[in-house]
Each structure stands twice: as C-alpha cells, then as structure tokens.
Amino acid sequence: MDKSRVLVHIALFAALTCALTLFPSFPVGILPGYIHMGDAVVVLSAYFIGKKSIVSAAVGSALADVIFAGALIYVPATLVIKGLMAFVAYLIMNRKPGNLAVFLLSVLAAELCMLAGYFLYETALYGAALAAAAVTAGLAQAAGAIIFSGVIFKMVKGTNLKKYFQDF
Predict the structure, then answer these.
(1) Residue 162, exposed/middle/buried by CB under 10 A (0-12, 13-18, 19+)?
(2) pLDDT, tens only, 110-131
(3) How far apart are CA 166 and CA 168, in angstroms?
(4) Is the pLDDT of residue 33 over 70?
C-alpha cells in the first residue's frame, strides 16, 4: 500500500477519534475525566484499518487530552491505554471479521482495558478511593462506546466501505 495512503488513513481516524472525544463530551465526577464517543472510533478504526489503529487511537485520544482543559496529566496514560484498546479490539475482531457478536466482544474487551488502565493510573495519581469513584463514569463511557460502535458496525458491515481501507 502507498505510504501516503496509510498515513491518510491513520490521520483520518486520529482526527475522528479526537473530534468525537471532544464533542459531544460531558465532564463527570471530581477527576478531570469526561464521557465521550471517541472510544467507539477507537474500536471502529481497528475494524477498518487494523493494526494501524494503534497509532490513530493513541494519537487522536491523546490530542483530545491536550486540547481538553485539565486533562494534560492524562496524555501519557492515554497514549498507552488507547493504543492497547485498539490492539486488543483488532486481535479479537480479526478472528471472525464481520461477525457482530465478535465485534461487540472486542469492544467490551477494549473497554475493560480502558477501565483497568485508567483505574491503575488514577490510583497512582489520586489514590484507590478516587480512582474507584471514577470507574462509574468509565462504565457509562464504555456502555456508550459499545452501543454506538455496534450501531455503526451494523450500518457499514454490508457496504464496501471497509474495502476502501484495505491494503492493496
């Protein structure tokens, strides 16, 4: 595949991830976290661009943390956690591409990585009690990502859109 095309795909999904992380977003709790739809793009990017989604997920999500006031402290964790989410989603959905149940399982696994990753990071920053309190917001974000990405997956599954992103 042409290197410029690969770069465009990564940049496209990074931009979508960043945009849907920032808008709509809803600040929650006492920590500088927020509920958003960016995670849905993280897992959808794994479906569309495969392993390259590790970069788009990490960069797009971290860029949103840079832009979002008060979230700069999360940039290092976000780079790792969101990249890991895309990787886990890719590994699972690659076993049976196009299968809705497998896709949803991959989203669930990715969201569990997100919850565990931020819990560990926030425990180091703020202590276990505050980190545990933040898990509630993470659960709402995970539920939104599962629903939103599942709906989008069902909409695009029968189309030729995925073929556009495949390597030639």
Answers:
(1) middle
(2) 999 999 999 999 999 999 998 9
(3) 6
(4) no
Global pTM reads 0.90
Bridge partners (DSSP) of residue 33 are 28
- Is residue 76's pLDDT more than 90? yes
3-class SS letters over 8-50: HHHHHHHHHHHHHHHCCEEEECCCCEEEECHHHHHHHHHHHHH
> How many of the other CB atoms lie within 10 Å of CB of 98?
12
Q: DSSP string of 53-112?
A: HHHHHHHHHHHHHHHSTT-GGGHHHHHHHHHHHHHHHHHHHTTSTT-HHHHHHHHHHHHH
pLDDT beyond 70 at 73: yes
Q: Write down all domains in the chain, each with its CATH number in brackets.
A: 3-23+34-164 (1.10.1760.20)
pLDDT of residue 168: 43
In order, the DSSP letters of 130-161 are HHHHHHHHHHHHHHHHHHHHHHHHHHHTTSSH
